[in-house]
Amino acid sequence: MVSTSIPQSSQSITVPQRRTGAFALIDSLCRHGVDYIFGYPGGAILPIYDELYRAEAKGDIKHILVRHEQGASHAADGYARATGRVGVCFATSGPGATNLVTGIATAQMDSIPMVVVTGQVARAAIGSDAFQETDIFGITLPIVKNSYVVRHASDMARIVAEAFHIASSGRPGPVLIDVPKDVGLEEFDYIPVEPGRVKLPGYRPTVKGNPRQINAAIELIRASERPLLYVGGGAIAANAHEQLQKLAEHFQIPVTTTLMGLGSFDEHHPLSVGMLGMHGTAYANFAVSECDLLIAVGARFDDRVTGKLDEFASRAKVIHIDIDPAEVGKNRAPEVPIVGDVDRVLKQIWQRIEELNLDRDKERTKPWLVKINRWREDYPLVVPRPDNSLSPQEVIVELADLAPHAYYTTDVGQHQMWAAQFLKNGPRRWISSAGLGTMGFGMPAAMGAKVALPEEEVICISGDASFQMNLQELGTLAHYGINVKTVIINNGWQGMVRQWQQAFFGERYSSSNMELGMPNFELLAKAYGIKGMVVSDRSELKDAIAQMLACDEPVLLDVRVTKDENCYPMIAPGKSNAQMLGLPKPKQS
To answer: Which of 1, 58, 131, 515 is catalytic?
Structure first.
């Protein structure tokens, strides 16, 4: 197993010393609290890896050698989501750098703080089509928060400090640092730049909400009879769960979350109505369709949530709280826009409530809560129990029962939506590619989360198609003994593609069946020296999961489920949230 000790920063340098650009990079990473780097070496980045070798030997930092650069980017992403700290990954120039692109885009779409370091050909060779040269700076411009090409080794410490500040402040995101090979070798008089010492004129994210807008928001909340809190990933990034629960309980406001917002509010709480959107709960989608006030907290009104946009919360006034001014009003014009850090704005609202000595009549929302609970009873999430096979939902429910406090990562597809529906997660314990929908994300992200939090249970829920996107990372789990449990919901299909082909493309199943060429996952795991298990019968499921969880080593569990199960509820393209497919018949008349 990887070491759990936190590396110490390099010896403090009080006077300039002759050092290389590579030393300045590694030393700066240590000073910014980086304990793990996920990466894969190559020619252009070798000067950096040579310095990394020395730092590892001293115990200053740990490197996790992945089996593909995309695995490095997803592992750094999972590390960041689980901890709230900046994740770091390395790759060399050319194909090494381009293999990071999907992971960078994944982090950008979900606002995840990452610093990505790539090697580059020597400065004199840039632009000459040298061996393994690609313009990774230009390629990634649309999918990073900021990026650098280090032209002089003397700039390295400042650039690293700026990169960490930009990645983790305001709306978080990935930052790229491209390092030409000769810059890594170049010597100069090195003076470190400590964290928090950088100055970036023009970059000053607004963190405090406007007092007038705070007052206006409170007035709307006090006047509403059918309010609804709509919470996204911004609440997770801001660690705002305590303030969110405080506001919801004080005014008795029901709470729905996006896929990114899962875990920001206690999903066992009676005010929780679960996830909304395309595969959200029926009661959450009905609530957003009938609310008179929608309080959007760190959410961006994306298409998978809103359905037909002009009918989304069409009866409601909108308060929109977000750190990114570009998101406020982008898809829906709010009556009260508030730009600021979500946690800080919620604290301001609470402070103003106390200053005004406001105690709202909690009976005002009681009929609204009764109506939502009626929907909850009439349209519950259903767990099928077919006679001759296991349903995917049964597997998720059993995992939730046996490992309720685990950190869960997922890949993308039907299994992701079932996991979102049936798991009840705490803050940062739900890790999933939401905006980009990246297959192959789950296992390397789980790897990053487990390295960051070795004492926590970390479980990856994958599909047979998604898992094959990055299955080589079993080698990384085996190499370092990273105790991640991976559960494959195996239906032999690209499940969500098959469901759409069934529903909207006349059952023409073009290139979505995965049975031909599927590996024996149990034997595959064993080939990597990892425990593999197979379950296909309901009577075996509970014991198999318990056995998996009891193992102090990585395990791959292949669960054979019914092949044609669909994920419901489902909002068809172009339909409103109230128009859902696959709803059960109401229990009440």
So the answer is: 131
Could you give the C-alpha distances from 61 to 57, 162, 168, 469, 486, in angstroms and in order? Answer: 9, 20, 20, 29, 27
Q: Name residue, tokens 């690293």.
A: 160
Six token digits for residue 511: 């290139």
Give the per-residue pLDDT at 589: 47
> Any idea which residue has 């929302």 for tokens?
365
| 265 included as an active-site residue | no
Q: Do β-strands 187-190 and 17-20 pair in parallel, antiparallel, or remain unpaired?
A: antiparallel
Select which of 260, 443, 447, 496 is catalytic.
Answer: 496
Domain extents in the chain: 17-190, 211-378, 392-567
Catalytic residue among 181, 347, 450, 485: 181
Q: What is the pLDDT of residue 11?
A: 47
Mean pLDDT for each consecutive 10-residue tract of the chain (589 residues)? Answer: 42 76 98 98 98 98 98 98 98 98 98 98 97 98 98 98 98 98 98 93 95 97 96 98 96 97 96 97 98 98 93 96 97 97 98 88 91 97 94 98 98 98 96 98 98 98 98 98 98 98 97 98 98 97 98 98 97 93 77
Given the residues 56, 132, 330, 335, select the one marked as catalytic: 132
- To the query of whether residue 69 is one of the catalytic residues in this protein, the response is yes
**Cα–Cα dist 282/381, whole Å:** 8
Catalytic annotation present for 496: yes
Residue with tokens 């949530």: 305
Which residue, among 261, 260, 249, 253, has the nearest Cα to 224 in the 3D structure? Answer: 253
Q: Under CATH, domain 211-378 is a member of which superfamily?
A: TPP-binding domain (3.40.50.1220)
Q: How many CA atoms lie within 13 A of 548 on its CB side?
A: 30
515 burial level (CB within 10 Å; 0-12, 13-18, 19+): exposed
Catalytic residue among 69, 290, 327, 473: 69
> Would you call 502 a catalytic residue per the annotation?
no
Q: Which CATH number applies to 392-567?
A: 3.40.50.970
End-to-end CA distance of the chain: 57
Global pTM value: 0.96
User: Fold identical between 17-190 and 211-378?
Assistant: yes
**421 tagged catalytic:** no
Top CATH class of 17-190 equals: alpha beta
* Location of structure tokens 């069946």: 513
